[in-house]
Amino acid sequence: MSDLTPRILDRTIAGWSLQTILIGILLMAGTLWGAWITRTLVEVRSRHIVTVSLSRLVEDFVASEARGGGTSDQSAKRTAVYLAAINQAVSNLGEDGATVLVSEATLGRSVPDRTELVRARVRQAVEASRDPR
Prior knowledge:
Blueprint: H1 4-9, E1 12-13, E2 16-17, H2 18-45, E3 48-52, H3 54-68, H4 72-95, E4 98-102, H5 115-129
Parallel strand pairs: 3-4
Antiparallel strand pairs: 1-2
Helix pairs in contact: 4-5
């Protein structure tokens, strides 16, 4: 077996030694990995953090429901629609590349507050789901 080893390493492909070809493949693989990891790190760095005050949104909804009246079935339906709209609006913020924190969980004011944006999207979703009577 020791007689075969020198002959395998002495082989050439298109004038290139097997050792040179293997080193070239490893260098190309390293370059591709470097490009991939760089792109991944840049994507992570471009994410931003925002807050949403869910307690304010829910407080406002509860206050408007208390003034609005209606049956308990109507109120339950409006509550389900409202909570689904909040969930969708916050999910949409996350899809835009933002990390969404509930503002009650943050200690500082160093991140942008997107509560009004969520409130506007929820209002649009709730109005779109209302029966036109």
